[in-house]
Amino acid sequence: EMQVQKVVLNSRPGTNGAPVPENFRLEEATLAPDLKDGEVLVRTLYLSVDPYMRCRMNEDTGAEYLTPWQLSECVDGGGVGVVQSSRCSACTEGDVVTSFNWPWQTFAVMKGSVLQKVDPQLVDGHLSYFLGAIGITGLTALLGIREKGNVTKGANQTMVVSGAAGACGSIAGQIGRLDGCVRVVGICGSDEKCRALVEDLGFSAAINYRQEDVPARLKECCPGGVDVYFDNVGGTISDTVIAQMNNGGHVILCGQISQYNKDVPYPPPLSDETQDTLRSKNITRERFTVLNYMNKADAALCELSQWVKSGQIKVLETVVNGIGSMGDAFCSMMKGGNIGKQIIKISE
Ligand SMILES: NC(=O)c1ccc[n+]([C@@H]2O[C@H](COP(=O)([O-])OP(=O)(O)OC[C@H]3O[C@@H](n4cnc5c(N)ncnc54)[C@H](OP(=O)(O)O)[C@@H]3O)[C@@H](O)[C@H]2O)c1
């Protein structure tokens, strides 16, 4: 028998409410000593907190592919860890594995069939990158741009990224530059984030939406208008960007985090004015879901890995320690406490 710690859902946020750390509770648990056929004992190294989890906190997630977390049950999401022992032929002791349904637990017994074995060489030993730049948020940035962005070298395009200092946004802006946009402008929530975007990640300019006049600064930073918009946030910021888009532009509808604490469907309805702009300027805005493109994941992860190894893409992370920090880290990320990918380190 083995003592472990786990995080369970303690309560649900109110309708239209922001999540609070007290929605989560830390508990002790014991793991059975013996593995059954097909099972694997894993030690958790890193866990991910992600905006979509806000939907899993509701009794009804509003999306058929997302199941709600149950009260008093262990919470789960993206994780990476190492195999301690295995009764599954696909895994052996020492393998590094990931899953989208990793329990928020220090050690766990999982079915081998839900684990993906990964190659630590892809991340030069930075195993937390499997949850971010060389994982789902990196894939979202790359495949979102490739599938929906119509970025073309030599076409003199300007890209705007909202949520630009976050996990997806910080990678998306760098890929926009590498794929040939002549100008990449980020919108984010602090001066420190703006500085990182321009000085560390090579964005052309950055706008702090909490402090600055966004329409005026966008005009200044995008004198030729906006051709491609990587949208992580929705709401007023997106109305403002779309109003400055050029004919034939493309919105990459990645996410709408400004609306996730509200009881609205996904994607949330647009104002009449914004809908008119899209129609009259022939701007595309198709829903993008990275999970629909996983057949392209392996090639995309190789491309991301090469860019990171060569230094052409810089990876930013905000790392906190310990399973007891999960609730705090999730709530902090939802209000902008992170630069780059929010990671929780569970063990060495
Ligand atoms: N389509 C897909 O398949 C897919 C896959 C993964 C993620 N996503 C989406 O991508 C987006 C980013 O996810 P991520 O994992 O990379 O998270 P993230 O950007 O690292 O973290 C969330 C960020 O959202 C910003 N934010 C919070 N409330 C806001 C508001 N009211 N207005 C503007 N910005 C706000 C905060 O930064 P500030 O300081 O700038 O406010 C915060 O840091 C989310 O919308 C997510 O749902 C989509």
Brief characterization of the structure:
With 348 residues, the protein is α/β, with parallel strands linked by helices. The chain contains nine helices and 15 strands.
How many domains? The number is 2
Distance between the termini: 22 Å
Biggest sheet, open or closed, and with what strands and sense? 7 strands, mixed
Architecture of the largest domain, according to CATH?
Alpha-Beta Complex
CATH superfamily of the largest domain: Medium-chain alcohol dehydrogenases, catalytic domain
Secondary structure tally: strands? 15
Order of helices and strands: EEEHEEEEHEHEHEHEHEHEHEHE
Report the portion of residues in β strands. Answer: 25-35%
Task: Give the count of helical stretches.
Answer: 9
What coarse outline follows from CA principal-axis ratios?
Answer: globular
Classify the fold: give the CATH topology of the largest domain: Quinone Oxidoreductase, Chain A, domain 1
| Low-confidence sequence ranges | none
Subunit structure: Monomer.
Keywords: Cytoplasm, Lipid metabolism, NADP, Oxidoreductase
Pfam family, one: ADH_zinc_N
InterPro entries: ADH-like_C, ADH_N_2, ER, GroES-like_sf, MDR_fam, NAD(P)-bd_dom_sf, PTGR2
